[in-house]
Structure formats: structure tokens, C-alpha cells
Design a protein that fits this description.
By secondary structure, this protein is of the alpha+beta class. Helices cover 33% and strands 26% of the residues. The strands form 3 sheets. Strands 1, 2, 3, 6, 7, 8, 14, 15 and 16 form a 9-stranded mixed sheet that branches.
Length: 375
Amino acid sequence: MPLDADRVRETLLHLLRTPSFSGQEGAIAAWVTARLEELGCTVERDAAGATFGGECGNVIARLPGTVAAAPIFLNAHLDTVQPTTGLEPQVVDGLVVSGGDTILGADDKAGVTAILEGVAAVVAAGTPRPPLEIVFTVGEETGLHGARALDLSALQATCGFVFDSGTPIGELTISAPTQASQRIVLTGRAAHAGVEPELGINAIACAAAAIAACRQGRLDAETTANIGVIEGGQATNIVPEVCRLRSEVRSRDQGKLEAQVAHFQETFQRVADEFGCALEFSSREAYRGFRIDLAEPVARLAAAAVRAAGLQPSWAEGGGGSDANVFNAGGKRCILLACGERDPHTLRESCALADVVAAAEVVAALLGVAAGERV
């Protein structure tokens, strides 16, 4: 279904200009609520913001179907990472960029735009559509907070489509890893660094030795590990007594994830013993991985929609976490679809207007394909 590219551009630029760092999504939530109501949706907000100190909750919209088909849901997140102060998107030869001193926010406002404009096109054309639920979440970037707080039992749809991936349009991400996050504390002994350093046990030196001994980076096609934060010390004249670290492990294979977490703990314990430091080590699951079989209804519908939009579907294995992890863990089978974001979370972030238009066409096609799945 052809879309109005000028309207897509207008919607995208308005969303990009509206600041919505995680926890500060009030303005953008109000704007998308108004747009959804114009489309004939009933809209509600939940209290997800209260779970992480945010100013508003998720936006949940429902649009009645015109045929007796199985309901589906669409999802994108409203929040962005920082920096966004002074963000002013620019269009250069069809490519939307920031001024170079902020992120752009195409992650995930390209997805929000695709959903709004794809649904708007179907409503305006009066073509068949299934019962539809639209969920715009908050706090995704800082911990999938909105999705975690969402009452999944209130969603009628068991099949969903998350527009929060990059390019090419038509790429379908069918898996994502489980992530485990670790907190590590090494405690040595303080001493005057200039008078009696030999009486101290340097916790930072211990941490450095342990880090050097750990396997990190891409461990195999399914597994990554990273020690990303280290904090310690008070002054240069004090042998540092405490060093705190944070790390993560991701894998699409649960056994490999557990083995790498154990490797981190065993390595830090061995080095701590050598230095004479005490070790505190904890690990928790940040989110659970998923895998969608290509024969599942959600995968078949997504591929059919991509073809109906005139594109060729391709399949990808994911390495990041998204709201799709939470939905799948809660029994709502969903798949990630590309919406055009490029180099997210960097000052180089961009998106091509043509890609966002194409993603909106996939949304419109998805509704048409799902309308044919009569109940």
C-alpha cells in the first residue's frame, strides 16, 4: 500500500524534535496519544513510570478490527538514550541526521513513525484489518522498564511485532540472547601510599589482574562478555581498599552463558586469593532470550507482510535485548522487524526517509495479511 512520504517525513521529524530521554517521555506520550485517538483508537496509560521514577507510563491503544481475525499487537518504544540537548534533525539527500553533537533518536522513533503511519494508511484506505493493539513503551533503554511493568494479561493478542531494529527493511530478527549482569566488589586494605604502601592491598591492581585474565569480547557466534565499569580509589596517596566492577554476559545458549559467568567468578576468586582481597560476586538475569521458529504464525505473518510490501524477507540472529525479550518471556510470541535506524546510540546515528516509509508499508501490509487469518 503506497504511503504519503511527506506525511511520514513530517511525523518522523516531529518525533525526533521531541525530547524523550528514558523517564522523560511525557510530551511524546501525549502527542502519540492524540494521534492514536484521531485514528479511532481507545487509548489508556498505565503506571509503568512509577516503577523506575519516570514521569509517565506506557501508551496502550486498541483499534477494533473490521473482520473476524485473530488480534495482533504492534510495539515500539518512546524513549531514547542521551545526549539529546539541542537535538535538531536535518535531512541531507534523504538521510536524517543530527547536528553531530547529539544522538538522533531514530532508535526507536523510526519504529513509532512506521507504526503510526502504517496504521493511518490502512484506516484511511478502509481496507480490512484485524483487531489491533498498539503498545508504545517507556524506559526501554534503561532496562526494559515499560515492558516489564506492562500487564501482559490485558493484551488479547498473543502474536506481536516489535519495530525496533535497523536495516535492511524486511529483515526479521528471530532470536535474542539472555543477558546476565554481574556486580563484583574486591576489598583489599588501605595504607598510606607514600609512607607504608607495603602494608596495603591494592584492590584496583587486583581488579586489573583479574580483568586481564578473563575471557571477554565475542567468545563465539552466540556469546559475548564484557567488563564495562570499574570504580575505586579515593586519592593518589591512598592504596585503594575497594574496587567495584560491573560486567555482563550474553548468549543465545543458556549453558554457554552459565559457563562464562562461572569463568568470571572463578577467575576473580583466584586472583583475589592471590592478592589477599575479599571478593563479593553476584549475577542476575537481566532478561531472558528467545527463539522464534520460522513455522510459527508470528514468523509466517511477518514474512508474508514483507513480501506483500514488495520486499524480500531475510532472517537474522539478534545480539541485543529489547521489549521482545520481555513479551516472549511472558508468552506473547513476537518478532523484531527493521525500521531503518542506523548506528544507534552514537552521534553518527541516522535513518533514511525511504527506509522509514518502507517500514510503514510493511506495517500496512502486516495488517492486511493478518486480516486474512480469519478465526
